[in-house]
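Ticket reopened. Same input as before:
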Amino acid sequence: MDFLIFKAPMLMVQASLDGILLGILFALIAYGMALQWGVMNIINIAQGDLVILGGYIAYTIYLWGIHPAWGVIISPIIMFFVGWALYKLVINKVVDRDLFISILATFGIAIVFQQLMNFIFGADVVVAQSEYGTTMLFDNSVTLPNSKIFSAFISVLYAVALVIYMKKSRLGRAIRATAQNARAAKILGVDTEKVYAATFGINAALCGIAGALISITLTLHPYVGLPYTVRSFMIVIVAGLGNLPAVAVSGMGLGLFEEFADYILGTEFRIGAVFMLLVFILVYRRFKLSKKREYLK
Amino acid sequence: MNKIAKLFVTFFSALTLALVSFSSSFAKVEGEYIVLGSAISLTGKYSSNGVHTQNGYNMAVERINNMGGVEVQGKKYKFEIIYYDDESNPKRAAQLAERLIKQDGVHYMLGPYSSGLTKAIAPVTEKYKIPMVEANGASRSLFTKGYKYLFAVLSPANQYLEVAIDLAVEKNGGKPVKIAQAFEQDAFSQDVRLGILDAAKRTGSEIIIDDKLPKELNDMAATLAKVKAVKPDVLVVSGHTKGALTAIRQISEMKVDVPMLAMTHCDAAKLSKQHGKKSEFALCASQWHKNLSYKDKFFGSGKKYAKDFQKEFGYDPPYQSAESSAALLVFKDAFERANSFDRDAVRDALVDTEMQTFYGNIKFGPGGQNVAKPMILFQVRCKGDNCENKVVAPTKWASDKFYHPIPKWSERS
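Engineering reply: fixed in the latest deploy. New output:
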């Protein structure tokens, strides 16, 4: 336990801002997960690995001499097709089966993706340089990398665009209809197969954006996908499916929680604290649900 | 009838299997070849360093074979290595070590990459009394278990950054310093940490931040914000390549000013290439540098080795390759002095090793670690956008002066 953070108010500001900026990025990944979970009832264990793959795409264009920030446009386009292909190859075979099968299938995909990325991009840790500089606040005692601000801004931009798209466009309405009742949607002429493929593609594209942002804010390595899967799982569990404002709030909350856990409990418990919180929330929800059931009786 | 036929089949297949394993158990020396075995990470998360290790081994095998091989009892032998891919997985590595020893009949082993995998294999080689010369397991715990068949050509992990603390104290006019440190939670990094703790105790220095980084971590913002707040004299970071890259990225972005920054794995992370000028002034621990003045008759000098390696594999050799090549030189020397293929004779010869290679002097301590070679420290220095690693300690080999303190970010262009 370390209470340094409570003695220095500037550290508190730093931690809060770091947490919120990071949380917005997590929320974007979680939104993709919530979307396809809601529509297809699939828990995608490979979510984090799709993120990392998106990051490697941005890193590749960086190696070609293009600024990695373009990755937030190029990477989702490529990732959309990766997601689409993945759906056609694997996911469509497990989409109506029980949750366990889909977890197994996506777990398999995660392993394949990790090994492929390791094979193609190598096992070295890599970073892309954005050269965006730093914003300094309060007489330099709080420093925010502009790349983090950029990544939060882009995340918000894409999230808002997606919400509008889901509300206004034909495909968006078809996706929402399928999420509500796939059978009814089918009867009313929605090509659910296409909707599923598009949903998985959109999820992969969101991962692609997040990955590109991670390549300029953090580091990339073929095997660091899992923590992103866990975080987005956690955010979705807290926020519920198909509720974007809740996803955003719970994403930022998780970012803050991680950052404060880091300061108070120590860095070694940062990810551990996320898992503990997950267990706690699952138990709490179960407790609440059982109470509700009693009431219904 | 059917039953009897089945019984026969079972019996014969068992017999064949027994014969196969029996015949191959003589494979330690086949014709003119001395067969060595190694489980190595060709896939998985250690694969890049695994390949560096393998390239180092192969380079030395080729060189030794071309220069007359190994002479035992008047006859010339050549080295040959059986490799298996351990997938960067300790369990798999231990299985493969068993397989090399029991099925392939290997009697002499070369180490895998990383402390973790060496730790997994050492109990196996020890059990079968197989001498293993390893070049990539530096964890101190490898040398405190009383292993008798384990020999490491490299300096143990706790020595990596001890020198850096001494250097910091020296620069502080002999007065104790304030240390902030962040180490990954793995065998190697924790051993580096122990070394720092020893050095801190010895010099009376105080450790004001002592963070442990989880394996999955790629964000150290919290640690660095604390560093900014408490202003230590020296910041020490060790977390393999990920730790080095994350640290430099966030130190530069958060404009963290420390007078001295000491790290491990800078060259494996290609720090000066990936981060360029941002990595300038970082002080890095290294087992070897091509500019050191050690010599041997196979590779000549470090510089010559680097040149030949570059020609053969197309990249500058990291120290992981150099130390792996040195492991073969040690084996050759031991075989010739033992003048026998008896495992225990070879093992006893290894114990008495005292030699110089291009990589450094080699003499094994009671735990099997190399006690004859000091660690070196280099500092990243840049001219324009071109950054290089310059040896700054120990003074005997220093090509450049240690730059201290690191200028503030506001003064750096």
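Residues 9-40 of chain A form the longest helix (32 residues). The radius of gyration of chain A is 20 Å. Please confirm and we'll close it.
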